[in-house]
Amino acid sequence: MAAPAPRPNVLFLSVDDLNDWIGCLRGYPGVQTPNLDRLAQRGVLFSNAHCASPLCNPSRTALLTGLRASTSGVYNNEHWWRPVLPDAVTIPQHFKANGYHVAGAGKIFHHVVGYNPPDQWHEFQLQEFDDNWYRRLDYYPWVKKVPSPPGHPFNGLKNFQGEFDWGALKKPEREYGDMKAVNFGQQFLKRKHDKPFFLAIGLFHPHIPMFAPQSYFDLYPAADVRLPPIKADDLNDLPKAAQDMAAFRRDEHERIVRENKWRDAVRAYLASITFADAMIGQLLDALDASAYAKNTTIVFWSDNGWHLGEKQHWHKSTLWERSTHVPMIWAGAGIGQPGVTRTQPVNLLDIYPTLVDVCGLPHRPELEGLSLAPLLKNPKAKRPPTVSTYLEGNHSVRDERWRYTRYRDGSEELYDRRADPNEWENLAGQPRYARLKAKLARWMPTQNAKPAPEKPAYDFDPVKHTWRKK
Ligand SMILES: [Ca+2]
After folding, report:
1. Which domains does the chain have, with CATH numbers?
2. Which of 5, 308, 434, 448 has its CA 20 to 30 A from that of 232?
3. How far apart are the CA of 390 and the centre of ligand 1, in A?
4. Strands 325-332 and 43-50
């Protein structure tokens, strides 16, 4: 009998709030992401990938536990997932239980204290921030408080929402917080490992504050920056539930427009994306130069997308393409047919079962995603529609052509993305689409868990990482 094939290492790479503005996804023509494009070339790009939920904590909790928000009740950033799902076995825990050395740095779980229990990892380097002058110590107790650098806020908007700042910091590139996570990864890859490893490096860029070295801003001359396409009466055909989602933090959009900062903010997002791409490039170079270049599987993802004024909205937290569409790239050991883009709808929930298949770990029956292994093997494999959920009872279904959204109150949206890539014309009210809507609705979860208890329901010990229900 042949010896079993050695299990591949995993490089699990993430960024935060990156929508489809990368070169190979063509979300913004002219964006410079040479390293992600190179990764897509040598691996498999999923061009129709969506988050399980369009916000940091529900997206990451779903991805890392394999459970939908509608199953766990973890719908927003105020739910500590651990006391809600005490028996969940996360991706790092499953690797840990199956002979892997499990290490991480940066933002993998949501970045506030209590979301990243230390028992997830053999070794972990906590996230470092570029903006800790206004970070709350009760949220980030490991952060050393430093005074505001002169010139803050850099976007020139006095009394604007705290972390929503952007600009070039006067410090060397190597001193940016995300670079510390990159350095951890580089050092880890230089070490000799006796066991297969799972290495997670989570970058915070291009999440706000959109800070990057000046050289990245210089790549995007202000005069060349284009605003996203907008339709003046875009919101008129939306149900109230959708209008409410679009209106969240509307004042920030209004202020950005009023003070003529829109182009400036788009430029900062572009600079932050290219900085993130450069850091990813450094990690890929470190892997290529290491002893693990040939036996490591790479998966790259972003937790959710990002609006830049589309539907008069900034941030995420909506069920349109801008918030749900994310980059997902697989490459390296065990990944089939490189260079062929997969256009079938897939979900960040699919990452966990795919890693199980690629690395030969024991299957976990509770996982709600679908392994991508058949699609990796055969670029033409059929795939069912996929679902993104935001808050209780609101689901959006995506197949290769359509987006169908149904809110908790029964109101709906339907978009033909082939004809209407900006999702400007809501077709849900037209009787001729009744059968299509019914067909797509069949993929919506039937379980809609009540929202889990939020932080005030617990006494949390940040040293022991224990929770006691009040
Ligand atoms: Ca995010």
Report:
1. 9-384 (3.40.720.10)
2. 434
3. 13
4. antiparallel
